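Appendix B, record 7
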Amino acid sequence: MFGVLLLVGLAGCATISVTSDVSSDGTIENYEMNITTTTTVYGILNQAAVEEGYDSFEDQIKDGENISSENFEYEETIDGNDVTMRITVNDVPASELDGITVREEEDQLVYKDETFVEELDETAETTEGSQEVMSGFVLEYTVNMPGEITSSTADEVNGNTATWTRTGSEAFSNTTIQATSETGSVLSTPGFGVTAAVVAMLSLIAGAKVSRR
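Structure tokens (predicted):
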């Protein structure tokens, strides 16, 4: 079991920045996720991975994907008290992904990622303290579609690019990523599972901290 005592004093802040480039045939040309957090959270993620039988969080992430090493890259950068974990997937057929859907609908291409509509721990009491913890979460998501975007749930659209910027608890629990663009013939596919795993872990960390307050 994840050591709850390790969560005491956790700041609860993390930024996830995602960029997803979609081709007209449904291939994810490039999917990059940067997770920036503190060395404390980074240590907890590694400890949790070790308790699951892995050598590190990196090892856990790599083991969870069936994507060829030629198309999958993981990199960590430590700068003072900040740690950035970068996960990149290149030129992956939609059929190999899990979590995102890309489909053709009425001669248009629809990209949807429901990773960030996951429910947070309902047992965690909503208090002023919990809101303070959750306020440290930031989600920045960019989708580059193969044609001009005709509709989306984005905060901003510029041509074929849609962007979302969300903060607080709803960033990781109530953000539907969806963009529809002109052109494209794709296969309906599920998407990228790494994000969901990371979000679940961050939600667990936040919930555990709140329960200790």
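Remarks on this record: The chain has one domain: 14-212. Residues 193-212 form the longest helix (20 residues).
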